[in-house]
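Table S7 (text form). Paired inputs.
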Amino acid sequence: MPKFRRIGVLTSGGDAPGMNAAVRAVTRCANANGVEVVGIYEGYKGLIEGNVKVFGPRDVSNIINHGGTVLYSARCPEFKEEWGMQKAKETCEKYQIDGIVAIGGDGTFRGATDLSLRGIPCIGIPGTIDNDITATDYSIGYDTAMNTVVEMVDRLRDTCESHCRCNVVEIMGRNAGYIALNTGIAVGATAICLWEIPTTEDEIISRIETARAEGKRNFIIMVAEGMGSEFGENLTKKVEEITGIETRFARLAHVVRGGSPSLRDRVMGSEMGAKAVEMLLDGKSNMVVCYRHGEIRTSEITWALALDKLFKSHYAGYKKADEEKLLAPYTPEEREIMHAFCANKLEQMKHLYRIAMEISN
């Protein structure tokens, strides 16, 4: 088993509330086991440039309640090149970093795999408000983002009721519709538009007209960001033209990423951070911490990435991938497991959508 002197920790990709809780847990759990921690600023960019600082327990005091990430984040196209990866490895050698905990989404995990293959053990922690990492049921930041959406849409509903108005609300989530689906249920949306579960404009308008005929005065339509940049605005115009109801468009955008993390994101970040350190000290590498069926579990990053591409391409339909090439490394039995996993994931979304439509009006 390798002897660890120092563990690096970085956050990459979009920031998410709860990342700081994970950074805090990584630092304090490593220190408790006699291992130093190096904070790596601006993700893989900072790793290439050597933008690092040794963290002690006091360096992570009073960050658990802060949104964003104290380690910052940045894009790093250089890390996709071999020279960039080698430069990152040199930084690890220079600062005696024997392993890295990488917090972020699928792009972060691809970087962790690249480092693992080059001799730097890495463990990934899912941190993205979109919750769009197929191998895990939950990613850090998801709960806070949903609570932010619910609070903001509840305020919109108040004025919708007063003026007998409709609001079409576009929700962040990149291509995935998880935030829009769950918050749509929570705010009693009349309709929810997701890429994963198609619906037509005519169906949406029919639901509005039926509800209005029954005396309803306020109408909320939740639109997932993955529907496209113009979908919500175009739908807003069509709803008003056909129904005659005053209809406004609201894009919540990046405000959904901010704010103090919820209890769940603080606890999940802490638990996942502690697990990542435990895995590194046990000699594990190229693994990702997951939350499935109520438990903290682990998966190989390469398997998690393949599963993610399979779901987004074959089941959710918003990314294209060569399925045969993607699944080539896996046995027929493993492929069957992966397809069943993805099918179940989509069925869970459809189940929630059916509930949403039954109780919306």
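Next pair, protein 2 of 2.
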Amino acid sequence: MDRGTPLDGRVALITGGGSGIGLAIARKFALAGCRLVICGRNPERLDRAAGLLGEITPEVLTVVADVSQEPDVIRLFEQLDRSWGRIDILVNNAGAFDGGPFESLTLAAWENVLGGCLTGTFLCSREAFRRMKVSGGGRILNIGSISAQRPRENAAPYAAAKFGVWGLTQSIALDGRPYGIVCSCLHPGNVLVERRQTSGLEADEEPMMHSEVIADAAFAMINLPPDINFLEAIVLPASQAYLGRG
């Protein structure tokens, strides 16, 4: 019997979906039959992403939103409700990066990274959880980082935020059990996203992988029977310094 594509008809929200890892995941899910919502802070990127995704499916909703801001997140989910009426999959991919010598870090840098990576993950997960609880379950996938387990030097805000994402993942997975809500965390290593291609930073000269590799891993973690949780995965170039790093 022809069962169609694996995720036919499911509604998937990908934050930070206008470029990089988020766009690669959105494209993978579109090919699998999902109806999509992508959000981000940059309307031009979202427009370009919508054009690319529109070549696969007409069922794409774009919303300009800063996930670190509660009113934006509430508005995002209200638009999702009006368009699709449900959410089956949430991928918390949006984030921010800043750092430097610890003694020189500003509160603004700290709050920017914690807001983008951790507060945004909390706010979006809370709104998705409320809806999934009523509809009978769903999946939340948080994009963490190997920095959640092996911090880099001069990156305290990012390491703290991603450690927090991993802790939040476990809490959501536990609290979601009675309602069929499954939460997982995917930790990428170095990914050749747009900002790393021209940064000139020494760290961005390390071994890299393409966003599509992370999209494949995300799909594998999502496309499972509803009673199975692929709780955590680490995906990185085999030659990247990880074991013993720090």
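Helices lie at 20-31, 43-54, 70-83, 107-135, 156-176, 194-197, 211-222.
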